[in-house]
Design brief:
Elements lengths: L1 H30 L3 H4 L5 E6 L1 H4 L4 H10 L2 E4 L5 H4 L9 H12 L3 E8 L6 H4 L4 H18 L6 E6 L12 H6 L3 H12 L4 E6 L5 H16 L6 E4 L2 E3 L5 H12 L4 E10 L31 H20 L4 E6 L32 H8 L3
Parallel strand pairs: 1-2, 1-9, 2-3, 3-4, 4-5, 5-6, 6-8, 7-8, 8-9
The structure holds (3S,4R)-3-hydroxy-2-oxopiperidin-4-yl beta-D-xylopyranoside.
The site of (3S,4R)-3-hydroxy-2-oxopiperidin-4-yl beta-D-xylopyranoside (XIL) has 8 residues, from loops.
């Protein structure tokens, strides 16, 4: 009897603790400022959203998304290998859910993406004939873009088509379709999706040579009389190496073309990469290496403070150009689910975002909010 009583007591106190924790989290969320509210007169504030989040599996993250963001980009579910896993076999389930979730919560969807050399379906890697690639290209863009015309706010029509020196990347699309394929992609997207905006998206296009390549590309699309509404600078930088001057020059030069400028995949990682250059090429990976994982037990406060300063400097710059900068999207909601824990080295503990692993706002969150005060 006494034993039973003490079990009941233990169960009761566990339940009580869980309840208190829930109340604490809920009240912390209620008093936390909102990014989308804070910057509502300036630009959209977005996040990448994964399959779990689209399906609203976890109420804590679900509440944060609804409270903090007014734009979402699917992290993976609209990439070719997922949305068209085999030839002419489309899987729209998750994207349909994403579109419904966004519309119910007054959130804009930036659809990512129509044409990219990575995360292609297996059948594309075996395709030899130019004719088959052309057929895939036209059919994929037309089918996906027309289904979500007007239901998504915008498309990343082409992702990462440039090399670091500004020349065109030697992708299967360049090889088989020739160097007009990007103009053609925008032309097809414009026809299939006249009610959504059309963007070019890439990493490192703030860097001079690659930026010049992007400008030439955008001018080529415009000269062909095809619509392009904006350019997305991905923004996968390191907290102690944010290229502020090049970012400012890029905002000026891209906006001078009469298009919107966006920061579409922002994260400021705190870990060193095995190479000197700053790339976000998903195929550039390296082996697991525990010596490259210095903060597995927590982020030192000194680093968190420097990261907060880097984020604040960036947002101050974005605000300076708020007339042409239309959206800032973070690549993920919290540190625990960032792709940078697995790329370029698997199994690391990175801290690139504004919310920590327990979904609590970090110093960087408050420093970003403070840029408006
Ligand atoms: C990343 C996703 O975050 C990962 O989950 C996936 O395994 C690989 O791709 N540039 C892009 C994004 O345009 O689509 C990439 O997203 C990150 C780099």
């Amino acid at each position: 009897m006494i034993r039973q009583l003490s079990i009941i007591q233990t169960v009761f106190s566990i339940l009580l603790m869980a309840l208190m924790l829930n109340i604490q989290t809920a009240s912390a969320q209620n008093t936390t400022p909102s990014l989308k509210e804070t910057f509502k007169d300036d630009f959209f504030i977005g996040t990448a959203i994964n399959a779990q989040q689209i399906q609203e599996k976890d109420s804590v993250v679900d509440n944060i998304i609804k409270q903090q963001f007014n734009a979402v980009t699917p992290e993976n579910c609209m990439k070719a290998e997922i949305i068209e896993p085999s030839w002419n076999n489309f899987n729209f389930d998750l994207t349909d859910k994403l579109v419904a979730f966004a519309s119910n919560n007054n959130i804009k969807v930036n659809a990512h993406n129509l044409i990219w050399h990575s995360q292609l379906p297996a059948f594309m890697y075996h395709m030899q004939s130019a004719d088959s690639v052309k057929q895939y290209f036209e059919h994929h863009i037309t089918t996906v873009a027309s289904r979500y015309d007007g239901k998504v706010y915008s498309w990343d029509v082409v992702n990462e088509a440039l090399n670091e020196d500004g020349t065109l990347r030697n992708s299967i699309f360049l090889q088989k379709l020739g160097d007009n394929y990007i103009v053609d992609a925008f032309r097809l997207a414009q026809k299939a999706s006249p009610h959504s905006k059309l963007y070019y998206n890439d990493y490192n296009i703030e860097q001079p040579a690659k930026r010049a390549g992007a400008i030439a590309l955008i001018k080529k699309i415009q000269t062909a009389g095809v619509r392009i509404d904006g350019v997305g600078i991905q923004g996968h930088w390191r907290y102690d190496n944010v290229p502020m001057l090049d970012i400012e020059k890029s905002i000026k030069e891209f906006s001078a073309l009469g298009i919107e400028v966006m920061f579409t995949e922002l994260d400021l990682g705190v870990l060193k990469n095995p190479w000197d250059n700053n790339t976000a090429d998903v195929s550039a990976t390296s082996k697991a290496d525990s010596t490259m994982n210095p903060y597995k037990n927590g982020l030192p406060d000194s680093v968190a403070q420097k990261q907060a300063k880097a984020y604040a400097d960036l947002f101050a710059l974005f605000l300076k150009y708020k007339n042409v900068v239309s959206r800032i999207t973070f690549w993920g909601v919290n540190d625990g689910e960032s792709w940078l824990n697995g790329w370029p080295i698997p199994g690391r503990t990175n801290y690139p975002l504004l919310f920590d692993r327990n979904f609590q706002p970090k110093p960087a969150f408050y420093s970003v909010i403070a840029t408006k005060q």
